[in-house]
Design a protein that fits this description.
160 residues, mainly alpha, 74% helix, 0% strand
Length: 160
């Protein structure tokens, strides 16, 4: 497996800059998960200020506003734990380069969620993150400097 890791530079070395982007995003998601863990899960904050601000937005779809008010706010500790777990999964997947395509789809959905509740000053950041997730899913960024190349050589499929 270690040989395949270094062999990936020989055959898909053109993906090296995208691999650095993937590793940076993995570190970013792990850092965000630790920060959110301290604030929402350990701190037991019942309703985030972000949710209260998001409910005041007029362009939010009705079904999403209903979901936020009726279900998410009443079960906030559970959903905070789930969001932190998703961030950890995406972060570790990006760091080691294993199943990057499904993780990038998960990251895309997470960023779409954040885009729906984000303030106008954060919209550009989340749109940029969506573009990065689409890029990582499209090129299969885990094949260079990641474990996906090992599995890609043996089991061809869309996940690698």
């Amino acid at each position: 497996m270690l040989q395949a890791y270094f062999e990936s530079l020989k055959y898909v070395g053109h993906l090296l800059p995208i691999s650095f982007l993937r590793i940076f995003l993995g570190y970013f998601y792990i850092q965000q998960a630790v920060k959110d863990w301290k604030i929402h899960v350990i701190g037991n904050s019942m309703v985030s200020d972000l949710l209260v601000e998001a409910l005041n937005k007029t362009q939010m779809p009705f079904w999403y506003r209903f979901f936020l008010t009726e279900h998410l706010m009443s079960h906030w500790p559970f959903y905070a734990f789930v969001l932190v777990g998703i961030q950890v999964i995406i972060g570790f997947s990006y760091l080691i380069g294993y199943v990057v395509r499904p993780a990038s789809i998960l990251g895309l959905l997470l960023c779409l969620n954040y885009l729906a509740v984000a303030s106008s000053s954060q919209e550009f950041f989340f749109k940029l993150m969506i573009a990065c997730h689409v890029l990582l899913a499209w090129v299969g960024a885990g094949r260079c400097l990641g474990l996906d190349y090992y599995f890609y050589k043996r089991y061809r499929g869309i996940w690698w």
